[in-house]
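Re: Re: ligand-bound prediction request (bumping)

Still looking for help on this. To restate: I need the protein modeled with flavin-adenine dinucleotide bound, output as structure tokens. Inputs repeated here so nobody has to scroll up.
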Amino acid sequence: MSLRTHKDIVILGAGPAGMSAALFLAQQGIPCTIIERKTFPRSKTCGDALSGKVFDVLKQIDTNILQEFSRSANAIGCWGIKFIAPNGTEASIPFQQAFNTHPGTLPSGFIMKRVHFDHYLYEKCLQSNLITLKTETEYTEVQRTGIGYQILTSYGEMIDTKLILCADGAQSKFAREQGQIHMEAEHFSGSIRGYFKNVSGFEKGNFIELYFLKGVLPGYFWIFPLPNGEANIGLGLRSDYISKDKVNLKKLLYEIIESHPEIRQRLQGAEMVGTLEGFGIPLGSKVRKISGDHFMLLGDAASLVDPFTGEGIGNAVFSGKIAAKIAQEALSQFKFEASFLNSYDQAIYKQLGDELKLGRKLQNLSVYPWLMNFMIGKARNNTEFKRTLTAMFENVDLRAKFRDPRFYLKLLFNKA
Ligand SMILES: Cc1cc2nc3c(=O)[nH]c(=O)nc-3n(C[C@H](O)[C@H](O)[C@H](O)COP(=O)(O)OP(=O)(O)OC[C@H]3O[C@@H](n4cnc5c(N)ncnc54)[C@H](O)[C@@H]3O)c2cc1C
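Reply:
Sorry for the wait, this slipped through. Here it is.
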């Protein structure tokens, strides 16, 4: 077997971004090779909440996905969000697709451990003879060549390619070395999560719960229900605050569990399953250059996580879809230079730019406990605010609203 091959498109990393790009390419009849360092099934440190955006994108690959997830023993439907303010004020907001509106209504979001969600995508990739998935294979180096890039793998293979879709996550070597994307503490979060069983006190409808607590702002502590009586419990905090206040996330998580009266009560008799795992979250609070000669950056490698909600899977699969579309155009016109691939940046920020900006604004406001008390108090009876907060998880398009100054006035003063 020759150790030197040529592939038109190589995808680095088989997470939601990389695998959705491969599936959208296959839908257009375009073959690709994915290089993934782990073997499946594999876990990924995450909160495991899958928002409406994830399904709006993936429905275009599998029209039955919502039905499939509703039947899956590994997923539970999520019908809303509960926000808890530093002073204990709670606002439980059902999604627009309300629980039990009529029989057979499907939820717009789900919670499913990443080991299962990523495996679902992996199996979809295996079903396509256009997708070559090389697992347990790490890319170790990339070099620019006359036609594009040469990729060196841990097996000593050399793969020449015209186009790289880089989707290897928050610690992407390629994004750092070729895309010049470097970790900036004020646009990055540190986070930690653990699986627990026997947690009590969940809302009907499996609401995800975001606790905005002093010491975790701007960020939050979460409890997300999972199937089989388990829960994903964790917290995330912006990295500049972690450094400034010398925060030990593990210690902070245990302190909250032990000292917060309501959380302590809910976790009495609970038991951790496995260990606490930490990982970084690259926030989309800054517009970056996410393509260049012969490459596009996807998902976390492009820092597309919502700065306020911490939601990254929806934007990762969306970037996979857009990258596949631009890749098809690049292949058919034989144009792989940065000026052509810049249409990827434009399409991504046209769709996601406004909501990422709003996410940054809300994140900045959430620094102040009194403001979070005010905002969550407001969310209890302000329809506009309720809709805005849940729409960010449901994938309701708010772009037109964001541009209308009256929208912000209504947010503050409307009680209807
Ligand atoms: C604690 C935590 C909680 C979160 N909670 C949520 C949540 O509830 N909901 C949500 O939507 N988002 C959440 N996120 C964000 C979400 O996890 C990411 O946005 C999402 O995983 C991004 O997908 P991706 O495909 O870009 O990258 P990843 O999922 O990170 O996938 C990257 C892939 O690349 C592979 N790889 C890396 N390096 C190499 C290499 N050198 N060679 C080959 N392969 C390589 C990795 O093994 C991996 O399979 C959370 C993140 C964290 C850390």
